[in-house]
Design a protein that fits this description.
The protein is 44% helix and 13% strand. By secondary structure, the chain is of the alpha/beta class. Helix 5 links the parallel strand 4 and strand 5. The longest helix has 32 residues. It is elongated, with a radius of gyration of 24 Å. The N and C termini lie far apart (69 Å). About 2% of the residues have low confidence. Bound molecules: uridine-5'-diphosphate-xylopyranose and adenosine-5'-diphosphate (ADP). Adenosine-5'-diphosphate binds next to helix 5. The site of adenosine-5'-diphosphate has 22 residues, from helix 5. Pathway: Nucleotide-sugar biosynthesis; UDP-alpha-D-glucuronate biosynthesis; UDP-alpha-D-glucuronate from UDP-alpha-D-glucose: step 1/1.
Length: 438
């Protein structure tokens, strides 16, 4: 089968669609058009100030935009001209009706499916007689089947669709590095002759820069489930280490020592063992809730409970950090001035979706503190910035005792203590006199 040489379209110009398609354009030379209903977002992609910040993204966009990478609001034209269409729309947690608070809201996803069938008019681009629709958004298992149904029943006679699941594993803040050298590219599709042809066509796109052995193929449900499970596992590790951070504080152990000791076991591995104020971001909580809903729908109550505990522990960690602050500052932060350094859900991103900082600031505001938030948002070394602040000068201007709560354990605690600060990290032996609150 010849490699795919036609045009590519992506519906959804967000955190996933934008960077992924910029990389596809750069590495393949194929013509890629990213479309979105949100005109402001498209205008931003076409401007000097991109709508999202990712280290290295601007360079990739500059090299390709206007040459073989285009951003447009004309969904129909782009869908018509491309035989491979990625769907990268938002699939937030449902806020109403059945599965409220757990299931994925597929409104945008179905909207995208309907625009694809509408734009698939006679004469529109096909590959080997069919259009290939690629699920990039994280969706519940079996969504590809539903998508095939919507597409197939609304398109002109004779047109066929192959729906593939090709979940994106990039992390925000390292999107460009992750896309340049992915650990794996997972492509799930139907095991029919046409399905395998579609999988091969998509694989030929990635093969421009991803070694063949890293392009993993499976059936469509395995691919859909793998994405949910990968995120659930990563989040579970963080909840595990966060749970142990509380035990460390209670026993005088140091969570960083424990994490490094267990992380050198190859069966455990060193990554995702950093304790913090709770995980945030648009994926972990949403995907676990989705997994929980899936288990509940299948009647697997114990399995659902098991995964739900990962979120409960995360909520506990966010609450606990807020309470630690109040308790430590003599049970009242009423009218106290508190500076919050960093508001995004992690370093190197301006994204604040589900950021633990939201909950922690909420706790402090409820306690009537005067909260000032600073986030450099888009500079590359924002965490280092925090490390290099002139803490001696800051100490001199602060009301005493001067407290620092280091939720990410990134500061030099010994040095700050020698300046005179009272500093408390998470999962560190308690160095402060804690007055227990209610
Ligand atoms: C995640 C997955 O890593 C990625 O594979 C998937 O495609 C999307 O979801 P992302 O949400 O961008 O990516 O960020 P990630 O780096 O995984 O961090 C998520 C949250 O966990 C952040 O709030 C981060 O601070 C926290 N975290 C991460 C920890 O608290 N400790 C760790 O050791 C790692
Ligand atoms: P993600 O983090 O998964 O990339 P985002 O919310 O950043 O999600 O981006 C999803 C994008 O998809 C949004 O910009 C939204 O406007 C766009 N979108 C949603 N539904 C449609 C649709 N039917 N057609 C085109 N774009 C859509």
């Amino acid at each position: 089968q010849p490699p795919y040489t036609g045009k590519i379209c992506c519906i959804g110009a967000g955190y996933v669609g934008g960077p992924t398609m910029a990389m596809v354009a750069l590495k393949t030379g194929l013509t890629v058009t990213v479309v979105d209903l949100n005109k402001q977002r498209i205008d931003a992609w076409n401007s000097d100030r991109l709508p999202i910040y990712e280290p290295g993204l601007e360079e990739v966009v500059k090299q390709t935009r206007g040459k073989n990478l285009f951003f447009s609001t004309d969904v129909e034209a782009a869908v018509r001209d491309a035989a491979i269409i990625f769907v990268s729309v938002n699939t937030p947690t449902k806020e109403y009706g059945f599965g409220k608070g757990r299931a994925a809201d597929l409104t945008y996803w179905e909207g995208a499916a309907r625009s694809i069938s509408k734009a698939t008019v006679p004469g529109s681009a096909l590959f080997q007689g069919f259009k290939i629709v690629v699920e990039k958004s994280t969706v519940p298992v079996s969504t590809a089947d539903a998508m095939t149904c919507v597409l197939q029943e609304n398109c002109p006679a004779g047109v066929h669709f192959q729906v593939l699941s090709n979940p994106e594993f990039l992390a925000e803040g390292t999107a460009i590095a992750d896309l340049t050298q992915p650990d794996r590219v997972l492509i799930g599709g139907s095991m029919s002759k046409e399905g395998i042809m579609a999988i091969e066509a998509l694989a030929s796109v990635y093969a421009h820069w991803v070694p063949r052995e890293r392009i993993v193929k499976s059936n469509v449900w395995s691919a859909e489930l793998s994405k949910l499970v990968a995120n659930a596992f990563l989040a579970q590790r963080i909840s595990s280490v966060n749970a142990l951070s509380e035990l460390c504080e209670a026993t005088g152990a140091d969570i960083d020592h424990v994490a490094s000791a267990i992380g050198s076991d190859p069966g455990i591995g060193p990554k995702f063992l950093k304790c913090g104020p709770g995980f945030g971001g648009s994926c972990f909580q949403k995907d676990i809730l989705n997994l929980v809903y899936l288990c509940q729908s299948a009647g697997l109550t114990d399995v659902a409970e098991y995964w739900l505990q990962v979120i409960r522990m995360n909520d506990h960690q966010k609450r606990r950090f807020g309470k630690l602050i109040v308790d430590t500052m003599f049970n009242t932060i009423n009218d106290k001035k508190i500076a919050v350094l960093g508001f995004a859900f992690k370093a190197d991103t301006g994204d604040t979706r589900e950021s633990p900082a939201i909950d922690i600031c909420g706790t402090m505001l409820n306690e009537n503190a005067k909260v000032t938030v600073f986030d450099p948002e888009v500079t590359e070394d924002q965490v280092l910035q925090f490390r290099d602040l002139d803490y001696r000068r800051i100490f001199d201007t602060m009301c005493k005792p001067a407290f620092i709560f280091d939720g990410r354990n990134i500061l030099d605690h010994d040095q700050l203590q020698s300046i005179g600060f009272r500093i408390q990290g998470l999962g560190k032996p308690k160095t402060l006199e804690i007055v227990s609150g209610s």
